[in-house]
């Protein structure tokens, strides 16, 4: 198992690699020779779920100071659910590193993938504490898989106004690809502003794809500004 390869993917170097190894052991990996302590990621997943919950609650509380309890809960649920965490796991090809019995294919098992992500969060927490855990969750998960929390119907207009006000520039859109069937096309577009990497999105038509891309970029840009204002200056904004 290439621990160093996974560490590069998650941008975290462990002091105690044994904690990360435990976070990657599936319960089916029961060979006494390979797993004499009969351990698995399940205990770490229990802890990681609680660490993730606390960090997300604090993060959204500080990032959206004017949001009510209902809105905060909505933000929380969108970033703590199984599918969202599994999406991150698939992005880093996490299934490749999970130790399991021969023949198991976990690449599309969202339940296991999300559990292992939470186990890794716990491993980081035990290895170096809450601040490194925050940095990992915000930089490596939330900012790499942005979820739209913008309630505006016209994200392009909102993004344009926001960019003019905060950055004194206009967003630039590009159509990257058109695929699919003639009667059911898929458009892929990007949007960017100066000093930021472009954000991409897809949609059934050009307008829909651009609205989705605008909403994603808007969320990231608002995060950047709110993070500075709320004391999360040590987090890099990655788009």
Summarize the structure.
Helix content is 53%, strand content 10%.
Description:
The protein has 239 residues and is mainly alpha-helical. It folds into 2 domains: 3-142, Ribonuclease iii, N-terminal Endonuclease Domain, Chain A, CATH 1.10.1520; 155-229, 2-Layer Sandwich (Double Stranded RNA Binding Domain). It is built from 9 helices and 3 strands. The chain has helices at 3-10, 17-23, 42-63, 69-80, 82-91, 110-128, 130-142, 155-166, 206-229, and strands at residues 172-181, 184-192, 199-203. A 3-stranded antiparallel β-sheet has the order 1-2-3, with helices on one face. A hairpin with a 2-residue loop joins strand 1 and strand 2. Helix 3 packs across helix 7. It starts with a helix and ends in a 10-residue tail after the last helix.
Entry keywords:
Ribonuclease iii, N-terminal Endonuclease Domain, Chain A, mainly alpha, 2 domains, 10% strand, 53% helix, disordered C terminus, single chain, three-stranded antiparallel beta sheet, 239 residues, Double Stranded RNA Binding Domain
Straight-line N-to-C gap: 30 Å
What is the CATH superfamily of the largest domain? Ribonuclease III domain
Instruction: State the helix count.
Output: 9
H-E order? HHHHHHHHEEEH
Structural class: mainly alpha
Give the strand order of the largest sheet, numbering strands 1, 2, ... along the chain: 1-2-3
CATH architecture of the largest domain: Orthogonal Bundle
- The percent range for helix content is 40-55%
Shape estimate: globular
């Amino acid at each position: 198992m290439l621990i160093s390869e996974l560490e590069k993917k998650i941008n975290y170097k462990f002091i105690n690699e044994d904690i990360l190894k435990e976070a990657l052991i599936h319960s089916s990996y029961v060979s006494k020779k390979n797993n004499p302590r009969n351990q698995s990621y399940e205990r770490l997943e229990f802890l990681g779920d609680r660490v993730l919950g606390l960090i997300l609650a604090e993060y959204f509380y500080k990032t959206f100071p004017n949001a009510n309890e209902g809105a905060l809960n909505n933000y929380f649920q969108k970033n703590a659910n199984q599918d969202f965490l599994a999406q991150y796991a698939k992005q880093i090809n996490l299934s490749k590193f999970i130790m399991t019995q021969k023949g198991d294919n976990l690449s599309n098992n969202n339940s296991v993938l999300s559990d292992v992500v939470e186990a890794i969060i716990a491993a980081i927490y035990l290895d170096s504490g809450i601040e490194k855990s925050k940095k990992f969750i915000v930089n490596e998960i939330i900012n790499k898989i942005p979820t739209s929390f913008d309630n505006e119907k016209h994200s392009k207009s909102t993004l344009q106004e926001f960019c003019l006000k905060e950055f004194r520039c206009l967003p630039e859109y590009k159509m990257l690809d058109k695929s699919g069937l003639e009667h059911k096309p898929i458009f892929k577009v990007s949007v960017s502003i100066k000093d930021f990497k472009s954000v991409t999105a897809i949609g059934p038509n050009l307008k829909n794809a651009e609205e989705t891309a605008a909403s994603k970029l808007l969320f990231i840009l608002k995060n950047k500004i709110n993070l500075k204002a709320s004391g999360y200056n040590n987090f890099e904004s990655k788009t």
